[in-house]
Design brief:
Length: 131
Amino acid sequence: MFSLCSLLLALVAIPYIQGACPKPTDLKNPDGTLTCAKVYDKSDPYYENCCGGAELSIAPDTDLPFLPSSWSNVISSLVVAPRCEVTVWSRQGKAGKTRKFKTGAYPRLEEFRRGIFGHWSNAISAIYCRC
């Protein structure tokens, strides 16, 4: 019983699991300017392997109602910079289901519901990033 209580306490004490994702405060371009968010095309059941594969940096106030074809419906991980917010849509042209992600790391978009049976991994077709 004692070990179960310790495990539960440890899980409650961790605000969110970041995995291999960068910290939101580390999202900057090489010249030091702010990046609103970074999206990744790979996630994994193990958090330490998330935020892998190809990455796309999104500048502040970027509005992409039509993601490039190589990024439409492949985003699996997401990191949002401080004082920024990302809004995503499940269909191109800002149609379909929508969700907002605030500052933080979201290594497994499978954990965020999109309707009754769906999730947000490989389901993002439009994105708006605001800082």
